[in-house]
Amino acid sequence: MVVDPGRTVGAHSAVGLGAVVNATIFTESRWQAVLGLPTAGLLWSFATFLAHSEQVEALGVAKSEALFYVALGGMAQTLLLWLGFTVVIWAMTRAFGGRVPLLRLMTLVSASSLALWVGAPAAAFWINGAPGHTAIATTISLISMALFLHALTRGLSADLHWSFLRAAGAVSAASVFLASFAFLAL
User: Are the beta carbons of 138 and 61 closer than 8 angstroms?
Assistant: First the structure.
């Protein structure tokens, strides 16, 4: 399969986030893409642990043991979110007339998650951090989420040979659905 340089974010086919996503999607060794969201989950867990380190010390729990449990919970949460988001984006892709295998879409979602390596820890600080530091964490989290959704839209567009607008419609519909679900769960 040939990568269309017009579908990359940068000015040149070898530049930009879209090129990274396209290179990951169109290579035979896709195992790198599988590490995207689990890495974001580990970074989320580490930031959550740092945000609650004073509480851990007050409980008298060993730091290594507490980090293990926080990382285990964060990874479980991230993997379930990965699966849930993939199923919703799969359903929205089908609603927009596309056909993509679920495992292929899981790989695409994870390959698009490079921005979440910065956004997940920032979101953990936003949720768990001190009130004075949440404004910058909020900004970083929202920008990272926008970059993630943009990369996912580019990857979905390239994978299904859709226009960017059609892929953005499917990704936006999935995002609105999940945001509504999260809001109602609060």
Answer: no
